[in-house]
Amino acid sequence: MKNIFNEIVKKMAVDFPEIPWVDWDKGQMNYDRPPVVFPAALVTIQVPQSENINNTLQLVNAIVTIKLCFDFTGNTSNITAEADRLKSLEYLDTVDKLYSKFQGWRTAEFNPLARINNLEEQRPDAYKVNSTSFKTAYHEATAV
Residue 33 is part of a domain; what is its CATH number? Predict the structure, then answer.
């Protein structure tokens, strides 16, 4: 997992210069004043399933989730001037870019990422949090 996280951090630095904060998701968005610099990307990697190839090697199926977090200001209603509404929705361009840059991306460490969902959290504050999850697989031999 650590290798995948480090590869994501490197890719975000190259492909997303507009996102100054990339971190492991430790619940930062659960604070009234989240301890991040916006916009931020928070990453989790979960292993819902794995299977033995032999006694010390496993095929690991993983879910990589990247949360894009924005300090949102703007209006999106139908009575908002179109130019202002489009400006307010610009954060979705970054969400689309995330899919574009990560769908099918792979390294020697893991298989190509394949998006499985994209969800926006409903929040009672002014933050927008959009989570995109990808599935992947890799071999893990750390039990040697």
Answer: 3.30.2000
Question: Does any domain span residue 60?
Answer: no
pLDDT string in tens for the chain (144-residue length) = 899 999 999 999 999 999 999 999 999 999 999 999 999 999 999 999 999 999 999 999 999 999 999 999 889 999 999 999 999 999 999 999 999 999 999 999 999 999 999 999 999 999 999 999 999 999 998 876
**Number of domains forming the structure of the chain:** 1
Q: Residue by residue, what is the 3-state secondary structure of 13-57?
A: HHHCCCCCEEEECCCHHHCCCCCCCCCEEEEEEEEEEEEECCCCC
Is there a contact between 98 and 69 (Cβ–Cβ < 8 Å)?
A: no
- Whether residue 99 contacts residue 132, with contact meaning beta carbons closer than 8 Å, is answered with yes
For residue 98, the SS3 value is: helix
Query: Does any domain span residue 50?
Result: no
Is 52 contained in some domain? no
Reduced to 3 states (helix: H, G, I; strand: E, B; else coil), residue 119 is strand
CA 24, 29, 32, 34 dihedral sign is positive
- Is 56 among the domain residues? no
